[in-house]
Design a protein that fits this description.
There is one protein chain. With 462 residues, the chain is mainly α. Among the domains are: 233 residues, no CATH class; 61 residues, no CATH class. It contains 16 helices and 13 strands. The longest helix is centred in the last third of the chain and has 29 residues. The two termini are 46 Å apart. This is DUF935 family protein. Pfam families: Portal_Mu (PF06074).
Length: 462
Amino acid sequence: MKKFKKRLGYKPNGGSSNKIVQGGFRKVEGNRPPDVFLQMPELFMFNMKDYMESVRSAKSVDFSYRVKLFDMYESAQLDLHLSGVLDKRLRGVTQIPIEFQRDGKPDEDICRQLRSPWFKQLRRDLVMSKFYGFTLVQFYLDDDGNIRYDLIDRKHYDPVFHKLLKHQGDQDGIDIEEFDNILFVGTERGLGIFAELLPAVLYKRGDMSDWAKFCNIFGMPIREYTYDAGDEDARKKIIADARNQGSNAVYIHPNESEMKLIEAGNKTGSSDLYQNFAEYWDSKISIRVLGNTLTTDTKDTGTQALGTVHKEEEDDMNADDRDFLLDILNYDMKAIFENLGFNVEGGEFVYAHKDKTEPQSMLNIVKGMKEMGLPMDDDWLYETFGIEKPKDYDQQKQAIEVQKQALRESLQGKDKDHEDDEPDDEGKDPKKKPLNTDKKAFKDRLKSFFGVAPTIGADTDF
């Protein structure tokens, strides 16, 4: 652990004076020059050749150059499907609040910091280390004594040699140990999940581009103009008219020539091919990010049972992400909280409550407990299912108990009368028809359904 703290620039008595400044090349009055000069990322005009070259450069042993690869990561997040499933996964780690507890009781000083907006964003940034390969953040205190953090641009940090780079692409920089309260999460040479997703995004972009061209050519009407080959004025007038009438495809040719358009034999099938190709890569992206497809796209083959299985897989992935965050908080960030002036001795970070259970699953659990005869608290049931408790709850409850008691007494009274009317075996008339045993059996089952409530002093420990 000491080696880990040293590598992250942990200083037991350090403050926030040695804060990393990130900025552009434009000088701002009153501020010191930035430690990191940021540049706008390249977002467009990438292909598979660029991807392969970027991965090779990033995997270099002696000089790992990741600038172009990280630009491609930013570009990939412009994909609507990828950004959607990525946001869905990140929501899974921010919906359950985290507390710092000591002896089972929350520490209000630290919990107040954990309820701040910065902590929610921090959880997202830490999970993104799985997609980028690493995340580097620096913590500090603002003027009000509250914790804040800065996400260090990944293009300006060399995780292999632990150097902060002034300009992206530099081969050498400042040791990260020079700065206070630095947290590094991830692996030194890993490229993250985005490296696996990039081919899918690039192939999909190429497919969408070809699909757009297909729609532009075959989805819009083509105008045809003809003119006399010897009439130059007519040709010029036709060209001017064609330009003024829009951007649809147009063919202008002399009367003596012939124009033929050779179209695809099955335009509908060709369009479906582009669509199926795009949906194929969308499904692969969903599987890699969420672990499933049916929670985002059920299609015609989706069933409720299969969708439930996929939802469980997604929940398992979210649970793994949440455990990942707790490990960071309890093993890596306690020292930083202590360095910032917060008492973390003898406590730990925990989730405030367990994962939410689906209402239908909870209803099945309640039914099972009821069938087992286990007593349940009515107030808990109302709270669990979000149903407002009736204002005249006590009166309704009492009326129900009166009805149950009356039904029990009625059934027991009829049974007693029936037993008194039955003759003994010795005086039984052999010609008399036997009683309907089916009705009697049904009556017995009905009586057993309404079990007599235990009296005071006979209740269980539940």
